[in-house]
Amino acid sequence: MPKVARLHAILWGVFSVGGFIAAFLLPVLIYIFGIAYPLGLWPISGQDPTTSILNHHHLGTMFLFVTVAGSLYHGIYRFQSTLTELGLARAKRALEVIGYLIIIIGILAVAYYLLMLNPSVLSLP
Amino acid sequence: MSKEKPFPEYKRKLGPGWWLANSHFTQYMIREWTSFFVAVFSLIYIYELSLFASGARADALNLLKNPGVIAFNVLALLFTMYHALTWFYLIGKVQPIKMGKTTSKPWQALLVNIVLLLIVSFAVIEVLVLR
Question: What fold does the segment set B22-130 form as a domain?
Answer without folding.
Answer: 3 helical TM bundles of succinate and fumarate reductases (1.20.1300)
